[in-house]
Specification:
This protein is α+β, with helices and mostly antiparallel strands and about 500 residues long. It contains 19 helices and ten strands. Strand 2 and strand 3 form a beta hairpin. The longest helix has about 35 residues. The chain is rod-shaped, with a radius of gyration of 51 Å.
């Protein structure tokens, strides 16, 4: 008995039908020729492929997997054609029907591949939308922080928007980027909306850099959206600093450099001019010294700004000159205030500076007298009870003699204020401190000496005298308080004592 049915005569049409059925990936060609092991292998390989590829995600499967599967199907088709060439079909009996069935069933792997590509594309879209949402959340979180801290978050979100727009331009996520950018700009510049202009400056500067990395077709009108807002913020922040007396030069300088022809830049000179006038007017107020200090600072700041901006230098230089002159003139009021407040050292310094700075001012003579009175009051505080006047002369003669080897300066204040210098006494020496304690000791008492002397005429009342070596700033000044009355001739004697290296 034969072991099996005899081989069928070769049939190319049957071989093609088996090959096509094997290309379905289900091994149907092997099923129709009763090759059970190859049939099982085909089913197993296809099942593994489905387990690996499904569900479809954005990453898909490695390229080697579909390539390997395609090679496997091709081998199955070739082997199936070889087997089907001499093996009869179990079903259908007619070869054309099997061939048509194979062609129809090829729609299964082709349709599956198309469906998988569509599912993978949808997974990619969902992944891109998830990236977009994550970037949006990062912007929302950054909005709760100071810009200096949040800038890195804003940059990271911008990098996501750019990647979506440039590398995934046809995606649904990319289509939403322009709207997201409008929200992004408003969020970054939120301080401007709150009229917190100084805080808004840095975020708006940052937004002007966004077009360097973002395609302009994604920005549209946002490309120049920050410009006017930044110009306004720079002006308002600088104007606030100008009013408050803080540093305003960086804001105005940046405005003039970046937007020289803007409406905001045109307001800088008038604003600085108004600030100088307000400050100069304050010299006559309760704090003239503070006003003078602000004028000095204003002058320095205006010069600094004008040096950096040729476009506005002429107008700014004129304001700076007026601020300088106002500060010089205001020194007199400041010195008077310091004197009346008992700050005699500062009053002396201020009035001396005023005399130097204002050689033609009508208050110069009195300022010189006030400086003298302030110096006397540093040794005799009671001398500072009244502000010195420009009065001079009187009916009482007072002679001051110099019984010391040093040239001395004599200062006096009271109803009349003044000073003069006496030359040294060539035959005089400094007294020891102990000799000045001996009974009968009296300076200027040697009738044989020719003491340098000077006589002045003073009105009655209390006059305070201070005399000191002209070139010895370490010596302790001598002092005297004289109550002058008519009918007397008064003398003052200046002398020097030394003790343990100290001079008096």
């Amino acid at each position: 008995m034969p072991s099996g049915p005899p081989p069928a005569p070769p049939d190319a049409l049957r071989a093609a039908a088996v090959a096509l059925l094997n290309l379905t990936g289900l091994g149907l060609g092997y099923l129709l020729v009763r090759r059970w092991i190859p049939f099982a292998v085909c089913l197993a390989v296809t099942t593994v492929l489905l387990l690996v590829a499904l569900p479809a995600d954005a990453d898909g499967v490695p390229g080697s997997v579909p390539a390997g599967y395609a090679v496997f199907l091709l081998l199955a088709a070739v082997h199936g054609a070889y087997v089907g060439l001499r093996t009869r079909l179990v079903w259908p009996g007619r070869r054309p029907v099997a061939l048509v069935l194979g062609v129809v069933l090829l729609a299964v792997p082709v349709g599956g591949a198309l469906w998988y590509d569509s599912a993978r594309d949808e997974a990619v879209e969902r992944a891109l939308l998830a990236r977009l949402d994550a970037a949006d959340k990062r912007v929302d979180i950054a909005a709760e922080k100071d810009f200096a801290v949040a800038e890195s978050d804003y940059r990271d979100a911008l990098a996501v928007y750019r990647d979506l727009a440039v590398h995934h331009s046809g995606s649904r996520a990319a289509a939403r980027v322009p709207a997201r950018m409008r929200t992004y700009y408003k969020t970054v510049a939120a301080a401007y909306g709150d009229q917190d202009y100084c805080t808004a400056v840095e975020p708006l500067k940052y937004l002007r850099t966004v077009p360097n990395s973002m395609p302009r077709d994604q920005l549209g009108t946002l490309t120049h959206w920050p410009d006017d807002r930044l110009a306004t913020s720079l002006y308002e922040c600088g104007a606030d600093g100008l009013t408050a007396g803080t540093d305003w030069v960086p804001q105005f300088g940046y405005l003039l450099d970046t937007f020289p022809g803007s409406e905001q830049a045109a307001k800088i000179v008038p604003a600085v001019d108004a600030a100088e006038k307000r400050t100069a007017k304050a010299v006559a107020g309760k704090d003239p010294c503070g006003a003078v200090e602000r004028l000095r600072s204003l002058n320095t700041q205006i010069i600094q700004l004008s040096n950096g901006s040729a476009a506005e230098s002429a107008g700014l230089t004129g304001v700076a000159g007026r601020a300088d002159r106002s500060g010089d003139a205001g020194e007199y009021a400041c010195g008077v205030k310091q004197y009346r407040d008992g700050d005699f050292a500062k009053a002396q310094q201020t009035m001396r500076q005023f005399v130097t700075d204002n050689p033609h001012d009508g208050n110069r003579d009195r300022a010189r007298k006030i400086a003298i009175g302030a110096e006397v009051a540093q040794t005799l505080p009671a001398a500072g009870g009244k502000l010195p006047t420009t009065a001079s002369g009187g009916g009482i003669s007072v002679t001051v003699r110099n019984d010391s080897p040093d040239e001395i300066t004599v200062l006096y204040t009271g109803p009349v204020t003044g000073s003069f210098t006496l030359g040294p006494c060539g035959s005089c020496k400094a007294y020891s401190f102990t000799s000045s304690l001996l009974p009968g000791w009296e300076p200027c008492g040697d009738s044989g000496k020719k003491y340098p002397q000077h006589t002045i005429s003073l009105p009655p009342g209390t006059t305070y005298f201070v005399h000191k070596p002209k070139n010895d700033t370490t010596a302790t000044p001598g002092s005297d308080t004289a109550k002058l009355r008519y009918g007397y001739i008064y003398t003052e004697c200046a002398y020097t004592t030394q003790s343990l290296g100290s001079t008096y």
